[in-house]
Design the sequence.
């Protein structure tokens, strides 16, 4: 393929759809998926042949042998192929077997030395490359990997959002989507195609449609969805893969809104504002907890000094000062009073409990 004459490779369709198994497992599996995808509106087939596994002993891919299956499927069905590269040798082999597009996995993007080695191996090839986000939500590191590729002359680059690793799963997903991070990347680089990988975000085939639609509503430019003829038997990521038949249904049901603009869309803004609100709410809860701690210290003093827990004069002072401050901030006196009734009530409950202790 003459990549250099193929400007805007990733913009030939919107959404640009990439599908295929997590890992290439057999030649039959690759041929079967390729046949199905070639008959659908799918632009690129994916299959991992070197799988970055968290623990040793899991299925690590069939390497060069699997590249031969992909080459055969490409020849038979004409669908372009993509695979993940994590070493310079992977680059050489992928090019040798005519792979059309490469991607860097999250565990590679996180390491600038490795990204640079791969970029150096790609110099002069012009092959299109997709860059998954690093495992941690660091937009500069993600953009840095893209820059390293651009600096060696790779002009066709797309970013691939696969969510971020966290200690606890967020919203029941495998990876935390942390949408403001890809949105920030898009804000910094309005021309960069940014795709979403709902399979790795959700880790759950039942939620792929929901996240795919969300990505569309946030003006992502494409989707990568793991697709396997028999998902439950997959050697890796079995819980998140879907059949080509289900993929077809999901793609047909997708509502694709207008073209991306350089302005943040309403939904992007909403997501951004909600993120800010989540942060503020976390601060509010923490502050209330600190206030309750102070309250119990006050309770100690009252107990030692044989004072009543409820002190009407102090309560009146609290309501007056807090309402006055609220009014200057555009809140109503009634709202602030009601809020403090709740808080004060809880303080009293804590201090009364201490008297019994
Ligand atoms: C994959 O695409 O199968 C994969 C290993 O993804 P990630 O790098 O996002 O974990
Ligand atoms: Mn996978």
Sequence:
């Amino acid at each position: 393929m003459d990549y250099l004459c193929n400007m805007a490779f990733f913009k030939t369709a919107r959404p640009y759809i990439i599908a295929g198994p997590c890992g290439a497992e057999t030649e039959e599996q690759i041929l079967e998926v390729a046949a199905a995808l070639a008959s659908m509106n799918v632009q690129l087939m994916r299959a991992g042949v070197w799988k970055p596994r968290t623990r040793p002993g899991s299925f690590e891919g069939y390497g060069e042998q699997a590249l031969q299956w992909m080459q055969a499927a490409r020849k038979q069905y004409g669908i372009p192929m993509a695979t993940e590269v994590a070493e310079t040798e992977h680059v050489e082999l992928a090019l040798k077997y005519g792979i059309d597009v490469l991607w860097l996995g999250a565990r590679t993007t996180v390491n600038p030395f490795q990204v640079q080695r791969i970029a150096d191996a790609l110099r002069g090839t012009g092959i299109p490359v997709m860059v998954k986000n690093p495992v941690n939500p660091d937009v500069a590191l993600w953009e840095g990997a893209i820059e390293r590729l651009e600096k060696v002359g790779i002009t066709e680059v797309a970013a691939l959002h696969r969510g971020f690793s966290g200690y606890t799963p967020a919203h029941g997903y495998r990876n935390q989507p942390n949408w403001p991070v890809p949105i920030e990347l898009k804000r910094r680089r309005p021309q960069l195609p940014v795709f979403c990988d709902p399979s790795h975000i959700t880790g759950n085939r039942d939620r792929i449609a929901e996240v795919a639609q969300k990505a569309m509503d946030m003006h992502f430019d494409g989707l990568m969805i793991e697709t396997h003829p028999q998902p439950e038997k997959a050697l890796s990521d079995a819980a998140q893969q879907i059949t080509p038949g289900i993929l077809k249904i999901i793609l047909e049901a997708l509502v694709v809104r207008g073209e991306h603009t350089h302005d943040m869309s309403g939904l992007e803004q909403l997501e951004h504002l909600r993120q800010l609100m989540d942060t503020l709410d976390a601060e509010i809860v923490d502050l209330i907890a600190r206030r309750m701690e102070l309250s119990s210290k006050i309770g100690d003093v009252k107990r030692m000094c044989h004072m009543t827990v409820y002190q009407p004069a102090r309560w009146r002072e609290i309501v007056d000062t807090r309402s006055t401050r609220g009014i200057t901030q555009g809140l109503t006196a009634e709202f602030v009073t009601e809020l403090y009734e709740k808080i004060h009530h809880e303080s009293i409950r804590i201090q009364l409990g201490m008297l019994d202790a």
User: Anything to note?
Assistant: The beta strands are 16-20, 44-46, 81-84, 101-104, 129-132, 157-161, 194-196, 222-226. Residues 22, 48, 52, 105-106, 132, 162, 200 surround phosphoenolpyruvate (ligand 1) (CB under 6 Å).
